[in-house]
Amino acid sequence: MHSKALACLCLIATAFALPVQAQTADDSDERVIMSSAAFLSGHPDLRYRLSGLDKFRKGDFDGALTHFRRAARYGDKPSQGMLGEIYWEGTGVAQDKAMGYVWMDLAAERGYPLMLAKRERYWAELDADGRARALELGQQVYAEYGDEVAKARLDRELRFAKRNTTGSRVGSVGALTIIIPTPSGEEVIDGSKFYDEKFWDVDQYLQWQDADWVNNAEGTVDVGDVMSLDQPLPPDGDDGE
């Protein structure tokens, strides 16, 4: 694959992997929190996206496809967009532009500008047969990966992860502190930041993601250096699905 095409594909998955820039101390804490194994273990949407991107960059396209699909089951729009690009371009799979359109249409479900623009371009380039096939395929994909069902899966994971990490202090973290290993040493984070509802309440979590994606839909994306994909990610596990 040409490097330009690879960069385009990777941009979709990385653009919202972490907050775009750390402008304040709170932003910096968020970057540390989101790059931690403890956070990723409770957020399968991000965990599988990062794992899929890691495999994609290493040329393991079968593995990448599997992990992007897993992330997509939890409503991860960048991963759904990656699947759209993979099928549209035929990267490691048989090219299927109708399926590429279906995944990009799903990725545009929340109105992200980049996904909407790609969806419209894909549709314009499909012939009549391709459009008919895309409409047929879309029903099955939406039934399994659309927000209506994916949000419930993600909600279960977030609730389970928070309950099992806070124990009897669910809903009140008190003076709890979180120690997070980073490439530059340990970071101590206030528990109230780690357990901020925007990370654990599914509605607030998705609203927070949506706002960040839309606000940073244009221009240059800098995901920083907190998360290194050479670092091991938490085990994928079964997720009960």
Automatic annotation (TrEMBL):
InterPro entries listed in its UniProt record: Sel1-like, TPR-like_helical_dom_sf
Keyword flag Signal: yes
Key word Signal present: yes
Secretion signal span: 1-22
Keyword entries, A-Z: Signal
Organism the protein comes from: Arenimonas donghaensis DSM 18148 = HO3-R19
Name listed for the protein in its UniProt record: Sel1 repeat family protein
